[in-house]
């Protein structure tokens, strides 16, 4: 089942930067060690500490910040917005939603309670749930677009050339077969924000077919791509076949597999794969940022 | 192809539905929920066959298995109906609110030769599996103590409005949260013969507990301690960890890594050396066909599906195993109600959580 009105072909962004800066390190997300994650949470408790690292990244040539919609990102956006000259050309690539926020709210208040908490207006949701009538297509489409708008509010006034849908939502919808949701998201992101919709997934080969069904051509897709096949569901060969043969714009994350692969070896392998447009990496020290950026410039 | 019905579309149910929906050997032939709009949306956008009533679904659709993810108090009657019809059952944890019901259902399934599994996903986490493997190899000698912990930011204010905040429906930190680390303790140390010093404390909740602390006693002098708090905002999400001490060393593990200290007296284990050893999730985790929220969630469903095809595969988290965990949960409830041992008559005062009473100089019968 796809929407009658197909999503328009992307006219939006050109090529992404070769390297995108991620934000896991700022929010205590570390796929290797809870201890390291906590140490990072402590270090980045104050926004100043985050800004110092972002300034280092900017100085090293980073212009694209691929970030969650964590409440604290709003403070970072405020800093950048208030000093446009200092951050000339700096862009945000929001990844939504920040899932833990919703998951904890669902545990506490149930599905509807959680939706109510995050929606700017309750009217439509209440009409959908009470009434006893069937849920109409426009209700679902309205709900999705309202949730996107709620998450985008903090980015007002700064450039957001790409809006990503987080893997936990992309992959949930993928498994459910809720193909139309991808098209609704893509259309809204293009028309309302003039941005390119992006999809983050842990199941790249499976997702590409579904995005095609949804009428999203040459989609921007971010997934784990690394030499040891870590969290590449469907298998590393299927990923390589997809990179080789399928029309999509590949963004590689987890290229170092949480530190399991040395940087040079990891990036040499990445850039030996066909059609990888960008690499996402996160780092906390100036030296590490420079080293990674230089390696990408040298090898990519 | 396994024909499956998915019952209960809350947080766990929806993610299970997505994972089995993507499984190449499963056909989801029916979904059941009591909420009309969820069924409406799923039916309209995914073409799934939806039912508002469980019995009606069982009557109307030919299935091989059901996956039950409803609030805990509905588990027992729903599982029984499914087993009576000869269906294999995957049920969310905990299995039942009483250990007697869990045992009865385990026996019923076993008599009928049906495959059962309960959603204690930690037994499918690479790091926790490695701990079990090390214990099987005797890597840290004779185990004297097991510490299991779980912390997270679930209840951070006084008011909750779902079944998870009601003890009578299987809510509360004991059944909803502590069940996981307690299941790990039972996996590592066996069936405890008794428990003591249990605290079911309220931090914010009034109708149930937010903290669980207790000591479990096992044969041969092994003990375990449970420390659980789901009202701890310093954790970004649920964090479960185990620390096991033995004559030959110590193991500490969480979802991401295993840290092992082996004394020189410890037996040789391939890939490990005396002193500190650290193994990360990247080397301990097997790939899955579909990833949604951690390999363990996919792996447990895959194991259930494969066991239906090949019952000779080892049972992991069968009803019989979950009944042990339910029995421990029940012991903890009884122990907490008995209160602490005290010599001070004036100390007989109500505990913060209303349903618990202290008693004087009396321990378990």
Automatic annotation (TrEMBL), chain A:
Source species, domain of life: Bacteria
Protein name: Uncharacterized protein
Source organism phylogeny: Bacteria, Bacillati, Actinomycetota, Actinomycetes, Micrococcales
UniProtKB/TrEMBL annotation, chain B:
Protein name as annotated: Gfo/Idh/MocA family oxidoreductase
Keywords per UniProt: NAD, Oxidoreductase
InterPro entries hit by this protein: Gfo/Idh/MocA-like_OxRdtase_N, Gfo/Idh/MocA_oxidrdct_glycsds, GFO_IDH_MocA-like_dom, NAD(P)-bd_dom_sf
Pfam families referenced in this protein's UniProt entry, alphabetically: GFO_IDH_MocA, GFO_IDH_MocA_C3
Domain GFO/IDH/MocA-like oxidoreductase: 128-251
Domain Gfo/Idh/MocA-like oxidoreductase N-terminal residues, every copy: 2-120
Provenance organism: Agromyces salentinus
